[in-house]
Amino acid sequence: MLATSGEPLRIQLLGPVRVWRQGQEVPLGPPKQRAVLALLASRAGEVVGVDNIVDGLWAGDIPQTATNGVHTYVAGLRRALEPGRSRREAGAILTSVSGGYCLRMDPEQVDATLFTRRHARARRERTGGSPDEAVRWYEEALALWHGDAYSGIPGPFAAVERTRLRDLRLTAVEEWAADMLEAGRHAEAVAELSTAVGEEPLREKLRWLLMLTLYRSGRQAHALAVYTETRQLLSRELGIEPGAELRSLHQQILAGHPTLRREAEGAAPRPVRRPPRGTPDLSRPVQLPPLARGFVGRTEELDRLERLLDDERGGYGASTPIAVVDGPPGVGKTAFVLELAHRLLDRFPDGQLYVDLCGTGRQGRPLNASDALEQLLASLGVESSRMPADVAGRTTLYRSLLHGRRMLVVLDEALSADQLRPLIPRGSSCVLATSRQRFSGLAARDGAHVLTMGPLADHDAAILLTSLCGGRLRGQEAAAVRLVRLCGGLPLALRIAAEELSANPTVPLSAIVERFAAACAERESPRNREAALIRLVEWESGTGRETPGHVQVDMGDVRTVVLR
Questions:
Q1: Is 409 left (phi over 0), alpha (psi -120 to 50) or beta?
Q2: What confidence tens digit (pLDDT) does each residue in 224-270 have?
Q3: What is the dihedral of CA 165, 171, 174, 178, to 10 degrees?
């Protein structure tokens, strides 16, 4: 039961961490005490183990006093949150439960949770054909932000959450802007997009939207200036040209493409077709997550799989093309599959389905085939009252609904081939899957194309690190190259390294890399250092698997080995 001791709280994580009780701000104490509150607030209503709090607050060598420190910080928070509570009285808001602590409050009293729920509601309205409602929910979600998430909060947990929420906010801005364009409200979107481009200058999707918004607002010269600035920035920072979509839009603006000109002249927005009230919209589910920020490389693998799937796709009634991408954690399997999926979108006009099968345990227990089918069928409009009870019935209904339709099905983090097989439709759809396991049997029995994903090449890894760190690497190319190689080409390790650099802006890159290299040389053989990298990315993504028996890596040393 959630309790607030008669004094409802409101917690801000989307900016400097702050707490209000009945309109009065609560003093929260030193940074690590605020960090404990932020971690507990991010999981309001759940029990968080003391060990998890320690891991979230300290990077590298964890001090022996860490556990006692957590208890001290909790005591300080209890005094701040419940000033009228006696020392002998059990806390009603911050409680001790089974070796951990729980912040007992409605999760929607925390702005970060409220943001994700409003964002999800906006997406549902968008998919359901209600762009005006979607815009309203996007704006209510974005209004919750007051600066960088977890501002001023130390520790690896805050660093990872800061990056995750920042990317989610930028995705929300992109989706909001697209809906504003659809509604013909071009000029209203310019200011927000300009601000977002300033925050994330290398994010091409934002610049594409800003160019189109400016053009449709009658500001062609400004739109072309954005392209020129983008091209110069990408050339200077990454040594690359703008992507195909940005180049295409630039050419259309120069040529005064009829579609762009018609919208620029203020043509009425296209009407949205809605299904009759009470009728599920089975026409086109759109469930693909957004593309990964800064995706680089893998061009040869993408081209090869795209050709193979196209060759196999054929016409209606052809066999279902299947591609499975496997590899270690942090190597970029999901980002790769989403990149491939977006390449294939125009081949599958009937929509996309996406399911996280939780094969790594990141979101809890892995989904069995029955649960996954229930989720897929619900996405196709099947009500719970009409849901078959067993796997066989659900499989039959699922394949019947997809028969004769061209749909793209993405199944992320599969645990086994047996988990996947009932989720493979028959006919002209396509299945893309990821896993840490290699499914040789799926290739032999089901004709799947299996690709094992390796680390990024040094050149591509350097581009990724540069895109994440920007000017932080300027003039320090040699140190950056060493850091890239020490990260083993794992994209997630590079992202974590970029967070560390961002968190230590006054420390020279060369000094960080020297400590990093010395720690690796002293503590780890190449084989064990690779295992340490894998343990790091598992820990950062919350999967927490055991290290293989032949490699013993102390988690207290992992960040020392990898990032110090």
A1: beta
A2: 999 999 999 888 888 888 888 899 999 988 888 777 754 444 433 44
A3: -130
Q: Does the domain made of 9-109 have the CATH classification 3.40.50.20?
A: no
Distances (CA, A) of 374 to 94, 356, 419: 36, 13, 13
Cα–Cα distance for residue pair 291/341, rounded to 1 Å: 10
User: Range(s) for CATH 3.40.50.300 in the chain?
Assistant: 299-452
Q: Distance from first CA to last CA of the chain, Å, rounded?
A: 42
* CA dist., res. 67 & res. 51, Å (int): 8
* C-alpha span between 433 and 85 (Å, rounded): 53
Q: Which residue type, as a one-letter code, is found at position 29?
A: G
- DSSP 8-class letter at 471: G
Would you state the pLDDT for residue 270? 40
Confidence of residue 444 (pLDDT cuts 50, 70, 90): confident
The strand pair at 408-414 and 100-103 is best described as unpaired
Number of CB atoms found within 10 A of residue 94's CB = 21
DSSP symbol at 349: T
What pLDDT score was predicted for residue 526?
44
Residues of the chain with CATH 1.25.40.10: 116-264
Give dist(CA 409, CA 411) in Å, integer.
7
> For position 87, what pLDDT does the model report?
67
CA geometry: angle 454, 450, 542, nearest 5 deg: 55
Tens-digit pLDDT profile for residues 363-412:
457 788 898 999 898 888 888 888 888 888 899 889 888 887 888 999 99
Q: Say what the alpha-carbon torsion angle 372, 378, 384, 387 is, to the nearest 10 degrees.
A: -60
Tell the CATH superfamily of the 116-264 domain: Tetratricopeptide repeat domain (1.25.40.10)
Rounded Cα distance between 34 and 68, Å, is 16
Cα torsion angle, 157, 163, 164, 168, sign: positive
Q: Which secondary structure element, helix H or strand E, spans residue 254, and what is its range? A: helix 244-255
Burial of 41 (0-12, 13-18, 19+ CB in 10 A): buried
**Residues in the chain, overall count:** 564
Phi, psi of 94 (to 5 degrees): -110, 105
Instruction: Record the pTM.
Output: 0.49
Q: Are 436 and 319 in contact (CB under 8 A)?
A: no
> 515: which residues sit within 8 A by CB, 6+ positions away?
564
- CATH superfamily of domain region 299-452: P-loop containing nucleotide triphosphate hydrolases (3.40.50.300)
